[in-house]
């Protein structure tokens, strides 16, 4: 008896990085849409404030915090 043929089934992608019906979305467009999404606003703000704080403490402006 010959072995049964097997076919590979691929599940469709779901989520923010899944391509929409009829359009091809690129990685950069999907990333931009995820960053600018309203539900991610708090996380994006926190990362931005953290980056500004690190840049401030690494610069010479951080010397104003030292007591004279």
Order of helices and strands: HH
**How many helical elements?**
2
**Regions with little confidence, pLDDT below 50 for 5+ residues:** none
Percent range for β-strand residues = under 5%
What is the number of strand segments? 0
The whole-number mean of residue pLDDT values reads 82
Largest sheet: none
**Class by alpha and beta content:** mainly alpha
Shape: elongated
Calculate Rg over CA atoms: 24 Å
Q: How much helical structure, as a percent, in the residues?
A: 25-40%
The first-to-last residue Cα distance is: 91 Å
Structure description:
- With 68 residues, the protein is mainly alpha-helical.
- The protein is built from two helices and no strands.
- The chain is elongated and about 90 Å long.
- The chain starts with 26 loop residues before the first helix and ends in a 10-residue tail after the last helix.
